[in-house]
Structures are given as C-alpha cells and as structure tokens.
Write a structure and sequence with these properties.
heterodimer; A: alpha/beta; nine-stranded mixed sheet; two-stranded antiparallel sheet; 5 helices; B: alpha+beta; Mth169, Chain: A; 3 strands; elongated
Chain lengths: ~230, ~80
C-alpha cells in the first residue's frame, strides 16, 4: 500500500501516523508538502494528519482545506482513492466538502486529551474490516473542536446508509453514556464518498504499541494494508 | 474601498464561547445581559470599480472561505 501523508504548516501528528502505517504495512509513506500540486504516482491512501494546521486560524481546518494539494486530494477521493482524516484531518475533510457537517467547539468548552472508548459501527469498509462487529476500542482523543454537527437530514442519511464509522461509548460499549464533546448521536467518525473517505476525531495512530497505551488502533491500519 | 464583513453563528447553533462570555459578564456584575453570541469581523480594503462589484467579490469571499455556510451567516457592510 502506497500512502501519502499531507503536511500542512501546524500539522503535528504526521510522523506518528507515518510510523503506524510503516510498522503495519511495511511500506513507509511519502510525506507531501501542502504546496505540491500532485500526489506521488500510484498513491493508494491519502492521510490528512492531526495537529493545528494554520494555528486553527479562521476555523479549524478552513485554510488547509483550500491548500494547493487539496485539488489533487479531491481528485484522488473522487476516483475512489482511500482518504483518511484524523482529528484536524477530519476537520479539513469537512471544510473541504469531502465529508458533510462541521466540527464545532466541544460543548463543555474544554480541550480534551485522554483515552476514550469507541464502538465500531460498520466493519464492512476498507478501514474497519479487521475489527469485529460492535467491537469496543480504546483510542486517545485530543481536541477542542470535536463536536460533530449537521442538519437533521444529513444525520438521518449518515445513520440510514451506515456512514457512522465510530461512536463514543463507555467501556461496555453503551453509546449515550460517555460523549466527550457534545457530538450529535455520539458520532466520532463518518464515511463519505463510496466508503473510501473516513474522518474521525480519535487517534488510531496513538494506539499501535502495547508500550504506549494499547494496540486497538492497529486494526484500522491492518484493514487498510490488507 | 473599505468594507466590513460580519460572520455570525446561525440561530440554534450552540455557541460555547458566547455562553462563557455571558457567564463572565454576569460575574462582573454587568446587569441585564440576556445572551451573548460571538462572531467575527473582517475589515477589508479592496480595489473594485464600483460598490456592486465589491459586494459581489466579497460575497464570493464569504462563500469560498470566510464563512462556513453550514453553521454561519455573513453580511457585507460598507464603512
């Protein structure tokens, strides 16, 4: 699997996600600067990493979503290419119109940085096929704007079409009991396009090594590398 | 030409920042504040042949970048 991780000014998780992909797929991703106009030939997976692109100026992800490389990312996604946005990358995908909705400030106003349980809602996608249906995962979250909001019709469509990827839940897998940021329907991640686009707030790249907090994130990269 | 673009949250959209400011104003003893909504102001110097063109360009700027139309409204004013 050839992956390209896009680097914006203020991205700060590009090395973590590149390391996770390298460790699990065996192939080191390219790091692509935002002012490039093309992705490396044969790119299978584009990753928009976490961080604070452009210092979160204007709105989180708003300026990065209009960067030069995004035309190539959009074309890649349109052709069905795998596209993953983590945390700030999720915000960028929403701002770019590749995913619906918007990530608003956490309802309790705090920046949240801790471990959080998630439930896998759909295991028939290229991102989650290594997980079991309804599997409860423990990922790290670290965000100030993770409160997913969209109009009622969009929420209904996401639910009806199985486009909710992950939901915040408690350790027993109960949704509604452990929503960290006020996100509608406890949504932690959603699919776009033909299930080739995933945006999620939690950080799978943080949890690939038992030495540093767990291995629940490996399944996402194993799914992609399979 | 000088123009001012004002971007505000649509009604019904939760505004935790506005809520926090509202609470702070109450704690400072500012009386009678019923609610606070926080928005953004952009003062823009722009060269354009006339006011109509300016407004058209600034509306495009709002729709392309300055506002997220899912949750925000915008208004263009001349100052």
């Amino acid at each position: 699997m050839r992956a390209a991780v896009i680097l914006f000014p203020g991205s700060n998780r590009e090395r973590d996600v590149a390391r996770a992909i390298h460790r699990i797929s065996g192939v080191a991703p390219s790091i692509v600067w935002h002012q490039e106009s093309e992705l490396p030939a044969g790119t299978d997976l584009v990753v928009l990493p976490g961080g604070f692109s452009y210092g979160d100026y204007l709105r989180c992800g708003a300026i990065a979503a209009r960067a030069k490389i995004m035309a190539a990312v959009r074309e890649h996604a349109r052709r069905g290419g795998l596209t993953l946005g983590i945390c700030n990358g999720f915000q960028i995908l929403c701002e770019a119109g590749l995913l619906p909705g918007v990530l608003m400030r956490n309802s309790e106003m705090r920046f949240i940085c801790r471990m959080q349980h998630l439930r896998v809602e759909n295991v028939q996608t290229p991102f989650t096929r290594a997980y079991a249906p309804g599997q409860v995962l423990k990922f790290a979250i670290a965000h100030g704007e993770g409160n997913f909001e969209a109009d009622d019709e969009t929420i209904r469509r996401l639910e009806d079409e199985g486009r909710v990827a992950f939901r915040y839940c408690d350790a027993a897998g109960q949704a509604g009991a452990a929503n960290p940021n006020g996100s509608t329907h406890d949504i932690a991640g959603i699919y776009g396009g033909d299930f080739n686009i995933l945006g999620l707030m939690p950080h799978p790249e943080n949890v690939i090594d038992p030495l540093v907090g767990g291995t629940d994130g490996r399944g996402l990269f194993e799914s992609l590398a399979a | 030409m000088r123009a001012r673009v004002v971007v505000t949250l649509k009604s019904g959209v939760l505004d935790p920042q506005g809520k926090a400011i509202e609470g702070a104003l109450a704690s400072l003893g500012v009386e009678g504040v019923a609610s606070v909504r926080q928005g953004k102001v952009f003062d823009i110097e722009i060269d354009a042949p006339d006011r109509e063109t300016t407004e058209r360009r600034l509306r495009a700027a709002c729709e392309k970048l300055l506002a997220n139309l899912i949750v925000e409204n915008y208004a263009v004013e001349f100052v």
